[in-house]
Write a structure and sequence with these properties.
The complex is a heterodimer of chains A (111) and B (147). With 111 residues, chain A is an alpha/beta fold. Chain A has one domain: 2-Layer Sandwich (Transcription Regulator spoIIAA), CATH 3.30.750. A 5-stranded mixed β-sheet of chain A has the order 1-2-3-4-5. In chain A, helix 1 runs parallel beside helix 2. The model of chain A has no long low-confidence stretch (mean pLDDT 96). Chain B has one domain: Heat Shock Protein 90 (2-Layer Sandwich), CATH 3.30.565.10. A 5-stranded antiparallel β-sheet of chain B has the order 1-2-3-5-4, with helices on one face. In chain B, a hairpin with a 2-residue loop joins strand 4 and strand 5. Chain B starts with 9 loop residues before the first strand and ends in a 5-residue tail after the last strand. Classes of the chains: A alpha/beta (111), B alpha+beta (147). At the A-B interface, helix 2 and helix 3 of A face helix 2 and helix 3 of B.
Chain lengths: 111, 147
């Protein structure tokens, strides 16, 4: 898994590519924790290049989402495709999170 | 599946530790027959493999060291790959695992409990038996006729 971080005035963009699984989900949570510790309130996650997600990956998103919403911020997901979309639909996570077709659409709601 | 004897599987033995999950994945995707599955089925098999293995690693042995064995049986003509996972830990039947409540919102949603649910929904067959003080879970995916 690879995570790229960029910051905008509305919040941070985390671009996740590769596999979000039992081996890598800790790294995702650490990246979110770092952003929150830096005072970032909102995080948009770009999942367009995510090849694979397991329940450990879902769990890491849930942990991040709970923490961010408890702090009054938003965790928004974008560009969910293929296998990740199927896992989200089966697990009910499509309705747990706000999922947007594009990164820009997610940021617009934060504007 | 159950009619398949252990001798019809190709086996890998690993300590019940998180590193085993990746070693097992590499073992399975390297089997002749895995590539014959369409991409959608390969990912389902990989997902089920990870979920069952992570469950063994985290829960089968509590704080003791343990082992797991992974068997793979492929049938390229039928487009079927079966995986059998054995451990010597506490009895655990994934088929009896309570299903998570998928309707809860983010604050009430439980962390965990999803893995076995995903397995049940991803594979074409899932079987469990307790024999010789082992948990034996077997699951298969098969290429759809139109694929």
């Amino acid at each position: 898994m690879k995570i790229d971080v960029s910051k905008r005035k509305e919040g941070a963009l985390l671009t996740v590519s590769g596999r979000l699984d039992a081996m890598t989900s800790m790294d995702f949570n650490q990246a979110c924790e770092n952003l929150l510790d830096e005072g970032c309130e909102n995080i948009v996650v770009d999942l367009g290049a995510l090849d694979y997600i397991s329940s450990a990956g879902l769990r890491s998103l849930l942990v991040a989402g709970k923490r961010i919403s408890a702090d009054g911020g938003n965790l928004l997901l974008s560009r969910l495709t293929g296998m990740a979309r199927e896992v989200f639909d089966i697990s009910g996570f499509s309705s747990v999170f706000s999922v947007y077709d594009t990164v820009e659409a997610a940021f617009e709601t934060l504007g | 599946m159950k009619h398949l004897d252990d001798s019809q599987y190709t086996w890998l033995r690993e300590p019940a530790e998180l590193d085993a999950v990746e070693n097992c994945r590499v073992f399975v995707v390297g089997q002749p027959g895995f590539e014959a599955l369409p991409g959608s089925k390969r990912f389902k098999l990989e997902l089920a493999l990870e979920e069952v293995l992570v469950n063994v690693v985290h829960y089968a042995y509590k704080d003791e060291k343990g082992w797991l064995e992974l068997g793979v049986h492929t049938c390229p003509d039928q487009g079927t790959v079966c995986v059998r996972i054995k451990d010597g830990g506490h009895p655990f039947n994934p088929l009896l695992k309570e299903e998570p409540d998928l309707t809860l919102d983010i604050q009430d949603r439980q962390i965990g409990g999803l893995g076995i649910y995903l397995v049940k929904n991803m594979v074409d067959d899932l079987e469990y038996e307790r024999r010789d003080n082992m948990n034996v879970a077997t699951f298969c995916v098969t290429r759809d006729e139109q694929e």
